[in-house]
Specification:
Strand content: 15-25%
Structural class: alpha+beta
Distance between the termini: 35 Å
Number of strands: 5
Strand order of the largest sheet: 1-2-3
C-alpha cells in the first residue's frame, strides 16, 4: 500500500499543484492484488454526500470495495523557491515544524 500512498502524493504535488499538506492529506485508495478496491474510510470526505456518490459510482462500475481505514503516516517536504514546505498525514500523529 505504501507505493499507492506515495504515488497519490506525487500526482497531487506535480499534476494538481497541491501543497504538501493537501497532497498528503488526500484520501488514500488503491488495490493490493485482490478483487477489492481499498477506499480510505478514515478520510472525513467519505462521510459526505460527495464521498457517498464516489462509493456508489465505484460500486456501480463493479468495484468490490474495502472501506477499512487506509492510514498512511506519510509525510512530504518540497522545496518551493528558496523555502521548504511540508505536510504530515492528519490521520496519524505527527506535525510539520519549521525553523528559522
Amino acid at each position: 500500500m505504501i507505493i499507492q500512498f506515495v504515488i497519490k502524493t506525487i500526482i497531487g504535488l506535480t499534476d494538481w499543484k497541491l501543497d504538501p499538506q493537501q497532497a498528503v492529506g488526500m484520501a488514500n485508495f488503491g488495490a493490493a492484488n485482490t478483487p477489492k478496491t481499498n477506499v480510505d474510510s478514515a478520510h472525513p470526505v467519505l462521510g459526505t454526500d460527495e464521498g457517498k456518490k464516489v462509493v456508489e459510482a465505484l460500486t456501480g462500475l463493479g468495484h468490490q470495495l474495502n472501506l477499512a481505514p487506509q492510514v498512511s503516516g506519510l509525510s512530504a517536504i518540497v522545496k518551493q523557491g528558496s523555502v521548504f514546505a511540508g505536510g504530515a498525514d492528519p490521520r496519524r500523529e505527527g506535525i510539520v515544524l519549521g525553523g528559522g
